[in-house]
Design a protein that fits this description.
- InterPro entries: TraB/PrgY/GumN_fam, TraB_PrgY-like.
- This is TraB domain-containing protein.
- Pfam families: TraB_PrgY_gumN.
- The structure is a single chain.
- By secondary structure, the chain is mostly helical.
- It has a two-stranded antiparallel sheet.
- The protein starts with a helix and ends with a helix.
- It folds into 2 domains: 166 residues, no CATH class; 45 residues, no CATH class.
Length: 219
């Protein structure tokens, strides 16, 4: 679904999101002794945490939203979204409609980004004395308010809870197993109706696949 949204933006604007980060990276490489640090949370962790937090109702609503994503986005719209009042309204709407997504994609990353910016700007003890590093942080506009609000408050102990991936719920495991079993069953049924009866080796391979599916779903 995320790829669908990004593809829609690219198609409408003729450019990929994240251009500010690519520009910042190119410019930083021109500065002597400049240390480039990627301070955002891993996208894999963010997505996994979102999948654990999001409700089935939110998934249904978001899927419906993506399927109906045909509105036009202009460069003027992007400039309008940069306004503080408009941005705050969008985040507020996201919080109301998709609370789990807002929590994992915005609030938690605000905390994560704030912590790493705090670490980067901390006074360093060197042989020449105390040095205050010069730091330029390039973040998405939707994170600015959260970083300002959290600045100086985030501790190392606040990070572990937002980088761990909670275990799957029993209902999620059952649903995943049901989907896998249904797909496998449909494949076997179609193969049985269309393809001649397989050899003993092929049957043994199918048996092993089913046993592997049952073991994987039991974890």
């Amino acid at each position: 679904m995320l790829y669908s949204i990004l593809a829609h933006i690219v198609k409408q604007l003729g450019m990929a999101p994240g251009g500010e980060f690519r520009t910042a990276f190119k410019e930083a490489k021109k500065v002597p002794n400049c240390i480039i640090q990627l301070a955002d949370r891993s996208i894999d962790v963010t997505i996994q945490r979102a999948l654990r937090e999001v409700s089935w109702w939110e998934i249904i609503k978001l899927t419906w939203f993506v399927l109906r994503l045909d509105s036009r986005i202009s460069k003027q719209d992007i400039e309008r979204y940069k306004r503080k009042c408009v941005l705050e309204q969008m985040i507020s709407t996201l919080r109301e409609e998709y609370p789990a997504i807002e929590k994992t994609f915005v609030t938690e990353r605000d905390i994560y980004l704030t912590y790493h910016l705090q670490m980067a700007t901390a006074t360093q003890y060197t042989s020449a004395g105390l040095i205050s590093p010069r730091v330029v942080g390039v973040v998405g506009i939707g994170h600015i308010n959260g970083i300002v609000e959290n600045w100086g408050k985030v501790k190392a102990s606040d990070i572990w809870p937002i980088i761990r991936v909670p275990p799957q719920s029993l209902s999620t495991k059952i649903l995943k197993f049901t989907i896998k079993a249904s797909l496998l069953g449909a494949t076997i049924y179609v193969g049985y109706k269309v393809i001649p009866l397989p050899s003993t080796n092929v049957l043994q391979s199918i048996k092993s696949s089913i046993e592997g599916l049952l073991k994987g779903s039991a974890k």
